[in-house]
Amino acid sequence: MPFTFTQIFLSLFLLFAISRVVIRFREGILPLLGFAFWLAVFGFAIVIVLFPGLTSVLATVVGIGRGADFVIYVSVSLIFFLIFRLYIYLEDIRHDITEIITHLALENKKRKNARKTS
Amino acid sequence: MDLLIGIPAFNEETMIGKVLKSLPKRIPGIDRIDILVVDDGSSDRTAAVAKNSGALVLRHIINRGLGGALKTIFAYAGKYRYDLLVTIDADGQHHPADIVKILRPVIDNGKDVVIGTRWKNSLKKKFILRYLINQLANFYTFLLYGIETGDSQSGFRSFSGKAVKKINLSSDGMEVSSEFFREIYRHGLIYDEVPVKLIYTDYSQGKGQRLSNAPNVFFRQFLRLLR
């Protein structure tokens, strides 16, 4: 089955995305679970890009009318999930910053006291 | 028994001196009272005024919010092993004489956390919208942690040494007020509340939690549950 230019371009882009995921995993930045998640997401996207007919099969299986609708539902859910994860990540960073600020405030106090007694 | 009175302060140079002056110097049953002001990255002279008024001052180099300042107060109280901790707002809305009132259940009755509740009938009518949002926050707190409270957002609290050790705050902002109830629930701390006098001035109203901030506080609290 000959592929269109768009399909080839999108597939190459997704392969590039997968290569970044593999590099991040090898560098130890991405945990195993994260690696598996992103590999599944991008791998699934490549399959859908190359064989769009599959979406109709999947749509029928899960009870959604059209294949395009199925893709949109899955994408929106995924985006919501990622925004949520991003929010949690930001919260963790805020929390870490506060920990550092608290630590610094206590350390500065200790240093000032030490100077007074020396 | 050693008591630490902790005051989170952000740009409070106008009021902090008066608040510090009005705090009790002696309380029956307490051997030592230390006063700690955590200046949460103020751009005014809050820290200098507090220091000149005789308080211990810890400075946050950047503003982290009410939760961040309270976290530092708890870290200090834990580090220096205070037997009792009282937190009070820096905007002058609490009556310093009530410190004894909110400490008594901790000292005499073995309570771990006592909150000073502010809503008398006359105030409910005067600040009806603020009161209703506070009630909503109380209901929300009850739904999340099963603890009934008359004023979940009050900044006037007393803690036993055990509570100081156990409580671990993670919120930076105003949602920290509800987070105390999560910690009470999580560690099985004994909770009580006592009515306190509220001094509502234009200044303290301007400084208090903004009503428009309430949805954000609820939302962040809810998302924390899903973590």
UniProtKB/TrEMBL annotation, chain A:
Segments crossing the lipid bilayer: 6-23, 35-64, 70-90
Q: Which InterPro entries match?
A: DUF2304
Q: Return the Pfam families for the record.
A: DUF2304 (PF10066)
Alphabetically ordered keywords of this record: Membrane, Transmembrane, Transmembrane helix
From what superkingdom does this record's organism come?
A: Bacteria
Protein name as annotated: DUF2304 domain-containing protein
Q: What is the species listed in this Swiss-Prot or TrEMBL entry? A: Candidatus Gottesmanbacteria bacterium RIFCSPHIGHO2_01_FULL_40_15
UniProtKB/TrEMBL annotation, chain B:
Glycosyltransferase 2-like domain location: 5-166
Recorded hits in InterPro entries, A to Z, give: Glyco_trans_2-like, Glycosyltransferase_2, Nucleotide-diphossugar_trans
Pfam families for the chain = Glycos_transf_2
Q: Which CDD domains match?
A: DPM_DPG-synthase_like (cd04179)
List the PANTHER family. Answer: RFBJ PROTEIN, UNDECAPRENYL-PHOSPHATE 4-DEOXY-4-FORMAMIDO-L-ARABINOSE TRANSFERASE-RELATED
Designated name of the protein? Glycosyltransferase 2-like domain-containing protein
Species annotation: Candidatus Gottesmanbacteria bacterium RIFCSPHIGHO2_01_FULL_40_15
